Amino acid sequence: MKIQTVACVCVVLILLNFTSSSNFNFPLINEYLQWHNIRAALFVECRRIDWVELQVITNNLKSNNIYVNHWDMSGGDDVADFNYQHFFVRLNYPICVVVQWECNETLSMLTEISKRTMFHYERYWLIFGRSSKRMFSTLSGEYINVDAEVVVSEAIAKNEYQLSDVYNPSVKRNGIFKMGRIGSWNKISGLVMNESNTKFDRRHNLEGLTFFAAITIPLLPPNKTFIEHIYSDDPRYLYMDNMSKGNMRVFEILSEMYNFKMTIRRATVWGRIKNNSWNGVVGLLNRSEIDMAISGLRWESDRYGVYEPTTNSFYVQILFIFRHPKTVDVLNIFLSPFVWKVWLLIVLVGIVTSILIRNFLLLENRLSAKSEIIATTSNDDSYFNSFLSMFGILFQQGCTDNPSFISTRIFTLTYCIFSLVIFQFYGSFIVSSLLNEAPKTIKTMRQLLNSRLDFAMDELPYVQDIFSHVFEESALEMYNKIMKQPIPFLPLFTGLDLVKKGSLAFNTDGISAYAILKTSLTDDELCELQQIKYVGKIPTGPGVPKMSPLRELIKIGIRKLHETGLIAHVWKTWISHLPKCQRSDVDVVPVDMIHFSSALYVLGFGMQLSITLFIGELCRNVYFRLQNIRFIKPLVK
What's the predicted TM-score (pTM) here? Predict the structure, then answer.
């Protein structure tokens, strides 16, 4: 497999000795450009040439849709004063440079290119020469790193060339300059490239070089260094700093893949602008004090040009976590089983049946008094007793009447069956309300704002900074509400302890918080956990300094880990999610105080009403007794 750059510019810097066309091989250059799918070529010649011949070459390249430009270095301009940025840099295209080694200006030009760090993966370089040893010796002193695309074309015979690539694993870290054969060209076979491996497959061995790295650990557990904390299995702090720990595992795999070592330093923040300069890991990258940042960094517009990102190796999920408040209405528990129309119908049926049973009992008593044949027990045929009996049956309290007529008994039995059916529906609903999870009514940020919960935010910098990138109205209102709290920022464990008590909605990174809550909450408390997401998953990845030669190496390595599933394994280990409710449908669920308190309210209301009426009746009796005494005294006189 070959790595192709689509729609790219190859700056074909042909430092030609144009006394004859044999100083370079145009078919080789043409095939090389097509091999890498290059669409532009920049000619740089080292002395005046035949413009007709140059025009022929230009037309041939243009016929293959390749843009052409040139620079004549023999025109008298100083190589050091040339505008390299204007000529060589193409924002949308990498540049490939083809050099004729024998030109007098070549070494000076290569030195200037090396000073400007232009031996970069953005540019292709193709160097023609007669001696690979001389070219190797000279190029070994230039700033050519592991990402460079520098190919040496050595003429080993007439119309036959051997192609080799040269690189240093890291000039900055004292690597060893290398050369390896990657292909050949001859007039018969044309360009033959080694397709068995890619550039970075050939350069995967960094030979044990030591690179400087940084990792972000804001706070350390007591009596631990940051290295001890990263590898600690202490349950209390195991899931603290998940992002840094997860990325550390990724870089351990990369160090084995590419055979390099790391000297790691700790930073307390990811990066903020302070006094017109960046601090934290971003500041270390911007000043090139480190070669790579192990901690994941977000891609933000204000960081553009400060460092170079690689690719996604981890992600964070900022959200609100809280225990959902109980939604049971203590005044409405025993009215919930039926809608108001059903309750109204039940009351109407009770009133109608009470009136009918009173008439039945009244008729029985009159017939019994007139006929000695009908022997019945006299029943109280008052309206109060009838209402008391019928509603006693409805409430499963039995009936005190003893009807004699068969018709009355059938009527009473039918009403008993009706009350039994109603009771079954009613009791089933009450039991199911105890077994089933209470409905969650807080599902949006607006509903959370209107709740009675307290609010706080994690003191981690990237959690605090998230609101500066959110533009939803309710989220901004929430931020203002948090900032008005007496203590708006809390440590992770303090905030989660308050979440456990059910009094706080905590804004934090869920990938760490859920893992900690799983070990501290009971099954019932886990079932009450609720989350409100107001931003999506935020991808993060390692960063490197600008123009770092390690950028592509790290990027390709992480993507290979994605393909093999190792990144997924790291995520499964260090990224936690909202735990599922483990409550079983067959669990024995006792009646809690919230449900029981409604019965106490009913009892208290009845007792208070009874006492109030009793006092009224007592006062009424005392009043009539005094009236009777006043009426009797004048008669006695």
Answer: 0.75
